[in-house]
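Translate sequence into structure tokens.
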Amino acid sequence: MPIYHCNPWDFYKPFLTLDEERMLVLCNHNTIARVIRTGPCPISTFPRNNIFQVQHRNFIDYYEAYLFKGQLFTVSENIDFSLKEMLENGLYPTEREIAYIIGQILAGIRFIECRRVGDSTLSGRTVRISREGKVKIDPTLDPIDGEGSSADVSSLRPLMLSMMNETQETLKATGVRSWSHEVIDFVEATSWATTEELFEHTFLTNPGGSETLVALCEVSSFMIKRDVKPLEAFSERFNV
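Result follows.
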């Protein structure tokens, strides 16, 4: 990933503030949208050969970085929803959708394990899903309390349970009345199986492609509300 020592705002136009750290920006004559995340970072400590460099279909693409006035600006693709946002809005995936999401996450974990490029925080906050049904992990977010790591595949268990809207206790109670034997066995297997063993589990047999998530993503585009407004340069155009 190229790193530049200049002002990113010479090349990108701020469009929407997404949160305290992230901003949607436009480039290439306002034809392409990207996300810029801003944070403090001394130039001497910026990591140059780590998980930022991963290029895989199940990781968010980071295109370039800028070091300017003691701040780090990273430029990435825009992936619409986090899994956390979906679940907080009551948008729980079906069993087949869960199989597809977990299969994509495991594909990403297997890739970085093989390349030995480090590990990534694994949670509903770091797993993002596009409107087209692409599942991608944001590899740059530091873990917060309760979040797991791709280095420990047992981190998939709380992720699975959250998508199922279950706890270990309620899953034992509902059991096969609500879920198939395959998904219950997969949840249990996360406590002892390797990444490769989980990837070959019968629960993940034929989960389909990204079209599996079309219905979930379409509903998410209507139900997930964000308190965002265009920045001043665009406020007149959008009458806000």
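Note: The radius of gyration is 19 Å.
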